[in-house]
Amino acid sequence: MGHENVTEFILLGLFSDEDAKIACFVLFLLCYIAILSGNLLILLTIRGSRLSEQPMYFFLSYLSFMDVCFTSTVAPKLITDLLAQRKTISYNSCMAQMFYAHFFGATEIFILVAMAYDRYAAICRPLHYMVIMSRQVCYTLVVASIIGAFIHSILHVLIIVELPFCGPNRIDHYFCDVFPLLKLAFMDTSLLVIAIIATTGVMSILTFVALVISYIIFLSTLKTHSSQGRRKALSTCGSHITVVFMFFLPLIFTYVPMADSVSNDKVFALFYTMIAPMFNPLIYTLRNTDMKNAMRKVWCWHKRSEGK
Known about the structure:
This protein is an all-alpha fold. It has helices spanning 18-48, 55-81, 91-124, 129-132, 135-161, 178-184, 190-221, 227-255, 262-286, 289-307, and strands at 8-11, 88-90, 170-171. The protein is built from ten helices and three strands; from the N terminus they run E-H-H-E-H-H-H-E-H-H-H-H-H. The protein has a three-stranded mixed β-sheet. Helix 2 packs across helix 9 (262-286).
């Protein structure tokens, strides 16, 4: 089986309107620069300060790193294709792009779950917190996230690699994803579509519901805390919940199709490939005094040491 005679695919991109392409090129390029600089700023601040000793920031630094990797599998091609005449991608690059997008995206989901577990330990089990969230536990959770994501992605690739692609090679999307590729396969893929919705879609929904419920439970236990502790926990959980909503809702809409609508898929995909990663750094820093203080220390110290 495999790809009999399709060696490359043509990506149709976001839209066909020529006039809007230059504007979008500038817009997405700025978004991509903002994503890289914002997330790297968080990453370097956490790594360069005492914050990395705290589990929450340990996970946040990995989340920022995954944001950078995830967006970098999609954004550069999306941006350059806006100006390119022929928007082609080779078969192997297409498979690689699909693998990495799923790999980094799924790792991010699992890290968000780890962060919820960390908040549970901090809010509901404060006395045992350092034991529950020891450095070893943190590393284990990150490694488990990576292994889980790898299994998820490799399964998707193994499904697609087995499909025969014989004629049509125009992908109605701006990156290689499972559903647009299934549409091109020279066979009936309806069972595969159902299987993927059942795995990825259900996994996304269950994770999302579990995360939301767990944060509601944390917030309901705050009644027993002091007002200052309550404010801090509310602020932290608030930013986590915002990120969870921004990432999961578009994902669920993509993987649980309400109707046969790929055009909407592209818009939803923009949310979790470009928009959510751009807002993550803002959400985590603007409402977080520890992070702001650490930034001041790390970056002001750099300036001082350069000035000497």
